[in-house]
Design brief:
Distance between the termini: 56 Å
Largest sheet: 5 strands, mixed
Shape: globular
CATH class of one domain: Mainly Beta
CATH architecture of one domain: Beta Barrel
Radius of gyration: 20 Å
Strand content: 35-45%
């Protein structure tokens, strides 16, 4: 009987954390967390009508990026409570049919008290972290407002609102799943730390305070899981430093210090280097060898640049080239191993969303809702400029030969027709 119970427990656990299809988009920046679209040929041209399969009104306001799994689209939003006198918000999760755009269910996860909720940045929302899906579970995160796990029918399995800190400008960074641990940042104005929650129960696994002091502790980055010499590391960008943590224990492995705060971009990894951005006020991009221990600021930075580095959009690594776009629209292509600049060109507009790559094409999305498509390579070659004429701060999602773009009021499915 004990053996049968053990086998059943293992089977349930495997179902819960089973990997999604390779063609799905299960978290912020996709299946690798680094903006690569696999097994899909995406359209290069569209506008508000052409190559639009559907356009769906999204209630409320939110800048979480959509995720896609097995024909369903999931995102979060904050909907004002009509009868509230203090601007209370329903923090909600939505599920849409990816073929039609129809909203299948809409679930309030938390209620935000408008009378006590801290203010947010004008470009932020009360629902900015991107959800995450694994197996039969959907994880949603609202920063300081709480974290929850739902089943795929919208039923709440657990909630955790125990992690308190003073946010600055609102919430931002998204969670990642490492085995059965849900890991995310809590970088507030009063204290800054990283946590892991048990993915099955929502209980705290570990909590690690940031070891580098910063005058402005608040940041909004999403961690990235990498493997170095057979050991897993969670790369975690924050104010004042980037860290590598052991995902099982939260123990710090190494750190690289820098001057910067309000760090937003998610790191990327390749060629034995971790590429991180340092945030405000003078952003830089660092290429770091992740095989050190302790403070490796003076020994493990392979190269760096402060030339048109982004505050908000994450970089993108494609082959031997590293692409990035600054917040004011200057796109760059660099040699990932040396930092040599192959080209730098203005795309026009302002940028917050992180770019993606598909089938040798690089997609950038401006805050004005204009997507610029470039051919990947060491020579600048623009393929298309596509305008939706709606504001857009969320990043792309992609699945089943389609791009999903969230604007201020709508969600679009863009596909060759």
């Amino acid at each position: 009987m004990k053996r049968i119970c053990l086998l059943l427990s293992i089977a349930v656990s495997l179902e819960t954390i089973a990997p999604v299809r390779a063609e799905d988009w299960p978290e912020f920046r996709g299946p690798t967390g680094q903006g690569h679209v696999k097994g899909s040929s995406l359209p290069a041209t569209w506008d508000s009508k052409r190559n639009v399969v559907w356009k769906q009104d999204i209630p409320g306001r939110g800048w979480s990026s959509p995720i896609i799994c097995e024909g369903k689209v999931y995102l979060t939003t904050a909907v004002p409570i009509a009868e509230s006198q203090s601007n209370d918000q329903a923090l909600e999760t939505l599920c849409l049919d990816s073929a039609s755009g129809k909203i299948l269910w809409q679930k309030e996860v938390f209620r935000q008290d408008g009378a006590t909720a801290p203010g947010i940045h004008s470009k932020n929302s009360h629902a900015s972290p991107t959800p995450l899906i694994a197996g039969k579970r959907l994880y949603v995160h609202f920063g300081h407002q709480g974290t929850a796990c739902l089943d795929l029918a919208g039923n709440i399995l657990w909630q955790n609102r125990s992690l308190t800190y003073a946010p600055v400008h609102g919430n931002g960074g998204s969670p990642i799943l490492v085995g059965d641990a849900l890991i995310f940042h809590c970088d507030g104005g009063d204290k800054a730390f990283v946590v892991a929650l048990d993915a099955d129960s929502g209980q705290l696994r570990w909590k690690t305070d940031r070891s580098v002091e910063s005058d402005r502790r608040f940041s909004f980055s999403t961690p990235l899981l990498i493997t170095v010499n057979g050991r897993k590391q969670v790369i975690s960008s924050a104010s004042g430093a980037v860290y590598a943590y052991d995902p099982q224990t939260g123990q710090e492995i190494w750190q690289v210090r820098y001057d910067g705060y309000s760090v937003i971009p998610r790191p990327v990894f390749g060629h034995g280097l971790v590429f991180v951005c340092t945030g405000y006020t003078s952003p830089s991009l660092l290429a770091i060898r992740p095989d050190g221990h302790g403070d490796v600021t003076e020994t493990h930075v392979a190269w760096s640049t402060n030339r048109s580095a982004p505050h908000a959009p994450s970089p993108l690594l494609v082959g031997a080239e590293l692409y990035m776009v600054s917040d004011n629209g200057v796109a760059s292509c660099l040699d990932a191993k040396t930092g040599h600049v192959h080209w730098q060109q203005s795309l026009r507009g302002s940028y917050s969303a992180s770019p993606v790559e598909a089938d040798g094409k690089i997609y950038f999305l401006s805050e004005q809702g204009t997507a610029v498509v470039l051919k990947a390579g060491r020579r600048f070659e623009k393929l298309a400029t596509n305008a939706l004429q709606e504001s857009a701060l969320a990043s792309f999602a992609a699945a089943d030969k389609a791009l999903f773009i969230r604007t201020a009021k709508h969600l679009y499915r863009i596909q060759e027709r």
